[in-house]
Amino acid sequence: MLEIKNLHARIAEDGTEIIRGLNLTVKPGEIAAIMGPNGSGKSTLSYILSGREDYEVTEGDILYNGESILELDPAERAAKGIFLAFQYPVEIPGVATMQFLKVAMNEQRKARGEAELTTPDFIRRVKDAAEKLKIDQAMLRRPLNVGFSGGEKKRAEILQMALLEPKLCVLDETDSGLDIDALKIVADGVNALKSPDRAVIVITHYQRLLDYIVPDSVHVLYKGQIIRSGDKALALELEENGYADIIEEAA
Amino acid sequence: MNMQTTNQPIGRMTVAETALVEAFGAQFGELPGNGAVAGTRDRLLDDLKKAGLPTRRIEAWHYTDLKTLLRTVPEAAPVSAIDPLAPLVEGSVVLSVLQGDADDGASADGIEIAHFKDKLADGSAVAGLTALDRDDAIGRINGSFVRDGFAISVPANAELEEPIELQVLHAGGQIHTRFPVSFGAASKATIIERHRSVTDDAALVSSISDIVLEDGAEITWIILQSQGAADTHLGQIRVKLGTNAKLKLFVVNAGGKLVRQELRIDVEGEGADLTLRGVNLLGGEGHTDVTLVLGHNVPHTNSTEIIRSVVFDRASGAFQGMIRVAPDAQKTDAKMACNTLLLSDNGEFSAKPELEIFADDVVCGHGATVADIDRNHLFYMMARGVPENKARAMLVHAFVAEIVEELEDEKLVEALEGVISAWLERHA
Asked: Is the pLDDT of residue A9 over 90?
């Protein structure tokens, strides 16, 4: 589903190289965890996957279902089924949450040549998904993410993910700022989306989230490269010993 | 006679100035008014001739050099049949002025409505035909040429349930209208002053509204200017606020080639409150100038002013906001903000807030920002599959809609948001 080959990327503005020869393959149905210390390039990788302009790919390629997506803008990638759950969801005053959801869902459908949703169908979908994530209707009446607590923002991200039904979900530190109850709700939301044709990349600092979203593979990112891959045992090992040993080994 | 092709200036007058003088001559004896009105018209035109159209050297016109920008004046167009439009807000009482003439059938329950041309004919309108100061070109032009409009009086304690829409439509040519409107003590009403062109033919429009809020009146007044791309719109609103009067004044500019909206407001009663909100949608080659002169003339009055502008293409805009606080106007609370989204490298916007404070116990502030769309907002929306153009349009819409939502009246908010959406769809 996703194949990242020898990827090199830098910050467009000042040329700082962040990703330095990254290789990663994720298969349909797989849950892949990417872990790594601060500054290893985890968030940058999520932005590059979703096409943020601030980064420039200088070498290598990203293949999604066998096709390079480097030339696609974020909206085109989203329509192809790539979804990024933001570490820090953006507050947008003046844009109503419901309106935004409807536009996003219908624009993606349009881009894929599907019929737009009728309003009753749309409302029913939002209501069902919101209920599962324990999202209050009052929250949906507010402007997008405005005044949401940290936990509400993360739940709203998973709500969008559930509604947009992406094929490749990238969760960027979705666990940060969540208490244990909120973490369970979010994890349940992600697990509910598990399917043989959908892959999930979970970017996280801590093993904690992986108790709830159990990964098929774990990859350690350091200085812009995957320096070690393994199964979920690797996450437990990291939890126990920290990153120092693995980093030393790779050096 | 074709004024547009009068290329030879008479003396030092420009083509447009010459055309105005000739148009006045051509309408001699035809403009409504008794002897006193005719004399006032002559005097105003004479002042206009002597002073000429204002240039950028005149402080009040610094960002809108009318002498240079008003290149021609369209020939007075024959009266053509124009049908009134559906009101902006369903259920409104529509008082239409079509091609400069007030509709004869206009009426509304519970309020007094007269044709302004009748007020000219009997001379009772003469006192209002003035220039407010020596730079008041709009007062002069309108006073010289005004033909009609509505004089409206809302009785004390009246609460009008439906908005009144002053629908000023034209099909090009010269249109000069006037709307003296007085709101009796403790009355409540919403007025929508809507200016619109129904053809692509160029027009010169001048329109003045003289508004008086008696004590305790609570009024929402909306100016919706959507003139054609070739039109010049010279608007002026003269407002007096009495004790505890509350005015929400919304100005939406969504059209016109050369637009000047002057807001001359005097807060004259203690406890009065002014909310001014402006939305400028600027595109094409148009130039739009909103100039506020606000006097807090007595103690204990409040005002807030927020102007939000979006600039596309080669459009330019200016906001001049002058707040004067009189020496004894203690406890004045006035806050002014001017925020602009500059969406084109060729666009331009100038903001000039000015405070003249002669009292020492006041809270007054102003701020201005000019920015592009927030890249984080744009990326977030695109990452959810909203194409860039659509995302931009939604963000621009949000920027101005935030102001409109303050109106609270749901029907009104929906109608104005519709105007904004339609404009953005055409321009963004």
From this structure: yes
Contact check, Cβ <8 Å, A75/B391: yes
3-state secondary structure chain B: CCHHHCCCCCCCCCHHHHHHHHHHHHCCCCCCCCHHHHHHHHHHHHHHHHHCCCCCCCHHHCCCCHHHHCCCCCCCCCCCCCCCCCCCCCCCEEEEEECCEECCCCCCCCCEEEEHHHHHHCCCCHHHCCCCCCCCHHHHHHHHHCCEEEEEEECCCCECCCCEEEEEEECCEEEEEEEEEEECCCCEEEEEEEEEECCCCCEEEEEEEEEEECCCCEEEEEEEEECCCCCEEEEEEEEEECCCCEEEEEEEECCCCEEEEEEEEEECCCCCEEEEEEEEEECCCCEEEEEEEEEECCCCCEEEEEEEEEECCCCEEEEEEEEEECCCCCCCEEEEEEEEEECCCCCEEEEEEEEEECCCCCEEEEEEEEECCCHHHHHHHHCCCCCHHHHHHHHHHHHHHHHHHHHCCHHHHHHHHHHHHHHHHHHC
Contacts of B401 in chain A (CB under 8 A): 94
A84 contacts B383? CB cut-off 8 A = yes
The reply to whether A53 touches chain B by the CB within 8 Å rule is yes
Number of domains in chain A: 1
Q: pLDDT tens, B340-355? A: 999 999 999 999 999 9
B51 touches chain A (CB under 8 A): no
The pLDDT value given to residue A176: 84
Handedness of CA A121, A122, A123, A127 (dihedral sign): positive
A165 vs B contacts (CB less than 8 Å): none
| A95–B contact, CB cutoff 8 A | yes
Residue contact A111–B397, C-beta within 8 A:
no
State yes or no: pLDDT of B78 exceeds 80.
Answer: no
In whole angstroms, give the CA distance from residue A55 to residue A18. Answer: 9
Q: Which domain holds residue A88?
A: 2-250
Q: Is B380 an 8 Å CB contact of chain A?
A: yes
Does the reported pTM lie above 0.90? Answer: no
Nearest to B379 among A52, A93, A95 (CB): A52
Q: Which pLDDT does position B11 carry in this prediction?
A: 58
Boundaries of every domain in chain B? 3-269, 373-428
* B389 touches A at CB < 8 Å: no
Q: Check if A193 contacts B (Cβ < 8 Å).
A: no
Contact between B384 and A111 using a beta-carbon 8 Å cutoff: no
User: Could you tell me the CATH number of the domain that includes residue A133?
Assistant: 3.40.50.300
Exposure class string for A18-50: b at 16+ Cβ within 10 A, else e: bbbebebebeeebbbbbbbbeebbbbbbbbbbb
Q: Which of A79, A90, A93 has its CB closest to that of B402?
A: A93
Using the beta-carbon criterion (under 8 Å), do B399 and A94 form an inter-chain contact? Answer: yes
Q: What's the pLDDT tens digit per position in A146-200?
A: 999 888 899 999 999 999 999 999 999 988 888 888 888 889 989 999 999 999 9
For residue B384, the model assigns a pLDDT of 97
Q: Does B416 touch chain A (CB under 8 A)?
A: no
pLDDT in tens, B297-350: 999 999 999 999 999 999 999 999 999 999 999 999 999 999 999 999 999 999
